[in-house]
Amino acid sequence: MRDAVIVGAVRTPVGRRNGGLSGVHPADLAAEALAALVTRAGLDPALVDDVIMGCVSQVGEQSWNIARNAVLAAGWPEHVPGTSIDRQCGSSQQALHFAAATVISGQADVIVAAGVEGMSRVPMGSSVSQGVGAPYGEKVRVRYADVEGVAVDQPIPFNQGVGAEMLAARWGLDRTTLDTFALESHARAAAAADRGDFDAEIVPVAGVKADEGIRRDSTVEKLAGLKTPFKADGVISAGNASQISDGAAALLVTTSEKAAELGLTPWARVHTAVVVGSDPVVMLDGPIPATRKLLARAGLTIGDIGAYEVNEAFAPVPLGWLKETGADPARMNPNGGAIALGHPLGASGARLTTTLLHHMRANGIRYGLQTMCEGGGMANATIFENLGPA
Q1: For position 343, what pLDDT does the model report?
Q2: Does 332 reside within a domain?
Q3: Contact in structure between 102 and 111 (CB atoms under 8 Å)
Q4: Contact 116, 14 (CB under 8 A)
Q5: Which residues are in the Thiolase N-terminal domain (predicted)?
Q6: DSSP state of 224
Q7: Residue 49 within any structural domain of the chain
Q8: Based on CB atoms within 10 Å of each CB, which residue in 17, 86, 96, 104 is the most buried?
Q9: Does the residue 8 lie in any domain?
């Protein structure tokens, strides 16, 4: 039976908004990840059957199928195709799911699952159409017209920040708890960077060699002074939410049989993959049912998992996930998360996988789990099985 294995994983540094990567066209940024991926794996890019690339704001410089443009920018043969997909924040995690399914089904042998987002150049929300009803239409607005937290008179009636406030209230998470978690994310990321844990996964771009969002000098007192834009007396601020960022990441997916034929060393198997829908108003609690579905399908328990990457869109997301799953906090986002490292929307799924796989290989962890909330109320979740040491 065919399987899906990952034989390489790289990412660019994650750049701060208007930082060191802001001068790089998103297609060129993605091309850097693609080129580094095949170079490090020792694979002729002519053997790639397809590139599936996540990107959320597919407008402007990220329009006209950025996956195809990135393939051409990387200098790969013209016969290598590419397609761009949008499952909001989970776009490149979904790209990996599609890549795995494609090679398992026998439709292809070698797929690149990737993601990119240049949020400095293509701001979040750029692709949202304007006008009454857009982009949801009248039927969605009528369905949720009487639901608290829905602004039916706005182009986007659902708001992730409002949803984060709802999650914080649901689990009784106060401002100090959220800000303390944010500081821990920065501390873990700083420690990982200082140890050199990210070095093997990062390809330098435009002179940027390291993630730009890590803050080493923040305090709870500093974070407490930030505004709460989603609720006057709220708890969600820029300090305990993910950073607006630029970045790209890429994963090389094939089968065990094809890897052996090509002389490639499998890093990990895509053990189990699921996606779920959740309440679009709260929007951010999907990782909880996704994790339950994933573990049930895999025949594993949360205790079997040695490391988890739960995307830190807002601090209540991973904290609520911990409360509901009973997972070990020490195993979650061990090298920091999006609060410290940033969240380049379409790239984040592949970035999390890249970081998780390098961590698993370096520490001899058999199973790793990744999940993330997504706009519109969805969540992807994936279990990886380590196939050998680094």
Answers
A1: 98
A2: no
A3: yes
A4: no
A5: 5-256
A6: H
A7: yes
A8: 96
A9: yes
The single residue of 97, 343, 358, 359 carrying the catalytic annotation is 343
User: Cα separations (Å) of 387 from 23, 141, 185, 267, 270?
Assistant: 38, 48, 28, 5, 10
Q: Which residues pair with 374 in a beta bridge?
A: 378
To which residue do tokens 């830190």 refer?
312
Q: Which domain holds residue 105?
A: 4-124+244-262
Question: Three-state DSSP class for 250?
Answer: strand
Q: What is the CATH number of the domain that holds 90?
A: 3.40.47.10
Residues 6+ apart with CB under 8 A from 278: 285, 286, 289, 373, 377, 378, 379
Question: Which one of the listed residues 55, 97, 271, 373 is annotated catalytic?
Answer: 373
**pLDDT one-digit tens code per residue, 342-371:** 999 999 999 999 999 999 999 999 999 999
**Residue 212 pLDDT class (50, 70, 90 cuts):** very high
358 is catalytic: no
Q: Write down the catalytic residue from 89, 97, 186, 271.
A: 89
Using the structure block, give the residue that is written with the tokens 């060129």: 28
Q: Which residues pair with residue 10 across a beta bridge? A: 250
Q: Which residue's entry shows tokens 């050998």?
A: 388
State pTM to two decimals: 0.97
Tell me the residue type at 244: I
